[in-house]
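Lab channel / #folding
Pinned by the channel admin:
"Please post every new chain as: sequence first, then the C-alpha cells as a reply. Keep commentary short and put observations after the output so the thread stays searchable."

First post following the new format, from NK:
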Amino acid sequence: MSNLIGEGNYRYDATIEWAKLPEGITFKETPGVAVDSEDTVFLLTRNQEHPVMVFSREGEFIQSFGAGTFSERTHGILITPDQELLCVDDGSHTITRWSRNGDLLQTIGTPFEPAPAWSGTPFNRPTHAAISPVNGDIYITDGYGNSRVHRFTPAGEHVLSWGEPGIDAGQFIRPHNIAIDEKNRIYIADRESHRVQIFDENGSFITMWNNIHRPDGLTLAPDGNIYIGELNGMGGMEGAPNLGHRVSVYNQEGERLAVFGEREEGVSAGHFIAPHGIAVDSHLDIYVGEVSFTIHGRHLDPPQEVKSFTKLIRLNS
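Reply from TO:
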C-alpha cells in the first residue's frame, strides 16, 4: 500500500512494500539504514541471523551478512567515502568496518567489554559513527552510557573526546546520531535535549538547532540538506499526537524546509512509530528504519513484529 505525504517541494509516495524479503526472513526491526554511491541499500536489522541486509534500489534482496558478530542491539550504520560500511552495536560496545560484500575489515572497541558508565572513556553503548570527508577521521557518538563524542584516526587510534552529561552547549543528554559536512562541521543529534548541536572538527561548539522532537536518525543528503527522523513521545507521552514519529528536513543554516508524517503514530504507509535510521539516495528518495518492535511491538499481547521500514519515493515538484 502507498500514501502521498509531504509538503511543498518535498512530496513523496510512501510505501511499506518495497523490500522483497526471502520467505522466512523478517527484519524484527530496522535501527539503521545506509545507501552507497550506486544506490544499493543496506539495512541494519535486529534479526541476529541476518543483521545486515542488502537490497537493490528497486527492493530486490541481494544478500545478508554479519551473523555471529552483532548483539541483539545493533544500532547505526554508515557508508564511508570509500564505500565501506561502519556498523555501531551498542550491545557489544563496538564499531565495525565492513566491505560492501560483507568482509569484516576492522573492529574498534573490545566486544562486550564496556568502559565504566559516564567515565568518558570509549565505549559504553555507542550509537552512531561518521567519517570526515576532509581528513578521514572517524567520529563516534557514545550515547547511552556516555554523553560523549570520540574522534579516532582511520587506523582506530583515539585522538580526542568531548562532551559530558548536561543541557548546556557542548553537553549532551544522549548524543544519538552524527553527520559531517564538506566543511568538516559535525552535526550531533542530541536526542533527549530535543536539539541538534554543531561543532568543528576538534569539538568546539558552533551553534545548535532547538525544538526538534527527539532527533534520532540524522543524515546529510546529496542535496546538501540534513534529513532527521524524530522519535515518538517520551515516557508517559507515548502515542501522543504531534510528538515525533515524523521526518523533517533542514538546510545547513538550520532552517526547516519540510516536515512529514501523520499526526498519529501508526503502521500504515505515511504513518511512523519510531523513526531511528534514515538515508537518502541519489534520486532523493528517503529510506526510514524504525525501532517499532522495541517501542511498540514487544508491548502487544502477544508481542509481535510490526512495520519497521518505509521508502519515501520523491515526486517531481
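NK: The chain is about 0% helix and 40% strand.
TO: also worth noting, The chain has a mean pLDDT of 96.
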